[in-house]
Design goal:
The structure holds two protein chains of two kinds. By secondary structure, chain A is mainly alpha-helical. Chain A has helices at 18-44, 49-54, 66-106, 112-121, 131-141, 147-172, 175-183, 188-199, 201-217, 220-225, 234-239, 241-245, 249-269, 271-282. The relative contact order of chain A is 0.13. Chain B is flat and about 90 Å long. The chains are: A mainly alpha, B mainly alpha.
Chain lengths: 285, 324
């Protein structure tokens, strides 16, 4: 990205019209209202009980940093669990859908179109009915309270959309690339690994982001399948936090803040990729 | 004779479809060895993990959800076929009737509250200055990065009766405390109002994608013709993003009909009747706080919700006219 001067030269500065004020005023209002709970969370996480009860809406001194230390002690195992589930889900989902999207786009094999249609059709069907049957399937497979119950169902249910995205992307690449490598005698797996997968990198990164966000923010599925407190994800952890915290509200709010923190930090560190990933994810059918 | 040719054509087409070959190859006769050659086998191998995982963890639960809706069983009992008994139980259950009213409330509220997002997207689109727009977009997207549960839990804490900051403030200003979370008549409004400012970042990104895809010439022509800000919205912007509106509408319809996640977080015993939606009823039948689960009831209710959500979204797709 080329560096741009922060301040435009005077003659190029845009004249402010009244309509600009209205539009910007509206947007500022929307953003302020939207982020208000976050503001309360940030200041509330540094208060002691008296400050929370008496002066909740304004920042207060002294800052009680020990809330974070206490909350972290409680949250840390859930951090590790969730990161572990998210990374496993991400790697497994990305690999399976990338390799399948490549095959559907480039290779020809019996059943290609029918198998693709079976995958594709699932994208348009509401998912509400699957919760209870999925839970009973997981019970029967004996994978409740293990990382598999998160990873396998994430892999399975993510395929329709992401295979579709991968296939579309591979189809947009020049076919000759793949042909020439094939003529050179490269095996299919080599072509995928050395040519297709590097080409797919932009899609892979935005898909990884979406899968990780999904696992990090998911609530109901881990709530019902990970009943062992030691296996909980971060969302389930903070949902149960109020019972563990009792009257220690500062620690409870610090726990909420800690749940939001890693993704916020990641967001501000790689804003461009995040925005691209979120925009692509939003177009999900 | 003609019929024979027609049936052969259909057979050929089906064969080409199933075997993934073109007409020439088929005319020369099927060579099975070549059909299942190296690259075809690799293709099948490549799609196997994706396909198999989708069948086992996505299709099978759904099909199981349909088939076992006609059975009754609990945690330690085997399923017994009961015909339509589950559906009869649901349709005569007063709890289900009450839940329909709550569902209708959330559906209506969510439909009306699609408007702020449209308004916000259009205004954001009209703001001059690429960097300013980017900053607003980034701030809106924060909503998608932070778990929704964090917002909800924060609201629950702020709205609490005894220790909630808002009630504290109300009392200090001379008002009486309000049972935002404990009054069954109020809880629906509480849940809806915690969505303030009612802008869904996800939907806004979809609208903005649509607006950004429209050629610059359209806006230039409108400016030259002296189209005012309101008419620009009703005549140009909204009609041009009707496709995106349809997409979001289908999302809102499906989500409102089947909703239960947020209700579950707000749930407590005292607001039971005011918060119960069909989706939440399904959840509690399968994962009850006390007592044995009634899986048959939950399956059948899931199937009902599935059918209704699918029908409504198909109808919306059909009857909302696109700009094309």
């Amino acid at each position: 990205m080329a560096a741009k001067p922060d301040v435009l030269p005077l003659h190029r500065r845009i004249r402010v019209r009244p309509s600009d004020l209205v539009k910007n005023g509206y947007m500022v209002l929307v953003v302020v209202l939207m982020l208000f709970p976050l503001y309360l969370m940030l200041i509330g996480s540094l208060k002691n009980l008296d400050q929370i009860l008496d002066r909740f809406f304004v920042p207060t001194l002294p800052l009680k940093w020990s809330n974070y230390a206490k909350a972290f002690g409680y949250i840390a195992p859930y951090y590790l669990n969730t990161a572990y589930y998210a990374v496993l889900s991400c790697v497994a989902t990305v690999l399976t859908s990338a390799v399948a999207g490549y095959a559907f786009a480039i290779l020809r094999f019996p059943g290609r179109r029918i198998l693709y249609m079976i995958l594709f059709a699932k994208m348009f069907l509401p998912g509400v009915m699957s919760l209870v049957p999925s839970f009973l399937l997981a019970t029967r497979l004996g994978i409740l309270n293990s990382s598999l119950v998160i990873v396998l169902f994430c892999v399975g249910t993510s395929q329709p959309f992401w295979v579709f995205v991968m296939r579309t992307f591979v189809e947009q690449q020049p076919r000759d690339l793949f042909e020439s490598m094939r003529i050179d005698g490269a095996g299919e797996f080599q072509i995928f690994l050395r040519l297709a997968f590097p080409l797919l990198r932009p899609i892979v990164s935005l898909m990884s982001l979406n899968v990780i966000l999904f696992i990090w923010n998911d609530f109901i599925w881990p709530l019902v399948t990970l009943t062992d407190p030691a296996k909980r994800t971060i969302t389930v952890g903070i949902y149960k936090l109020s019972t563990a915290a009792g009257l220690d509200y500062g620690m409870m709010i610090a726990g909420y803040a800690l749940a939001a923190l890693p993704l916020l930090v990641a967001f501000f560190l790689s804003m461009k990729q995040f925005m691209a990933g979120l925009t692509a994810g939003a177009i999900k059918i | 004779m003609a019929r024979k040719i027609a049936s052969e054509a259909i057979r050929d087409k089906a064969l080409r479809m199933i075997l993934d070959i073109d007409a020439d190859t088929l005319a020369k006769g099927i060579q099975w060895r070549r059909l299942f050659g190296y690259s075809a086998l690799m293709g099948l191998l490549f799609i196997l993990p994706a396909f198999l995982s989708n069948i086992v963890f996505d299709w099978i639960p759904m099909l199981d959800g349909i088939a076992k809706s006609f059975f009754q069983w609990s945690r330690y009992t085997t399923p017994v076929f009961v015909g339509l008994e589950n559906f009869r139980l649901i349709l005569t259950d007063p709890e289900f009737h009450a839940s329909l009213g709550n569902m209708a409330f959330f559906l209506a509220a969510n439909l009306v509250l699609m408007l702020p997002t449209i308004l916000c997207s259009v205004i954001l689109f009209r703001i001059r200055g690429k960097r300013t727009r980017f900053v607003y977009r980034v701030l809106l997207c924060l909503q998608m990065v932070i778990p929704g549960l964090v917002f909800t839990l924060m609201w629950i804490f702020v709205l609490g009766y005894d220790f909630g900051a808002i009630n504290h403030l109300l009392e200090r200003l001379g008002f009486s405390r309000v049972m935002f979370l404990g009054d069954p008549a109020l809880i629906k409004w509480t849940i809806v109002l915690t969505g303030i400012p009612f802008v869904s970042a996800n939907s806004a990104l979809i609208y903005l994608g649509g607006l950004n895809g429209i050629g610059e010439s359209v806006w230039e022509a409108a400016t030259l013709d002296g189209v005012g800000p309101v008419r620009r919205f009703t005549r140009l912007e909204f009609p041009l993003i009707i496709g995106q509106f349809k997409l979001n509408l289908i999302g809102v319809l499906g989500a409102s009909i089947t909703a239960y996640g947020q209700q579950l977080v707000f749930y407590n015993g005292s607001v039971h009747r005011g918060i119960m939606t069909p989706g939440l009823l399904m959840y509690f039948k399968a994962f009850p706080n006390t007592g044995a689960p009634e899986y048959g009831y939950a399956y059948a209710l899931g199937l009902l919700l599935f059918v209704v959500a699918l029908t409504v979204s198909l109808l919306a797709m059909k009857f909302v006219k696109s700009a094309e």
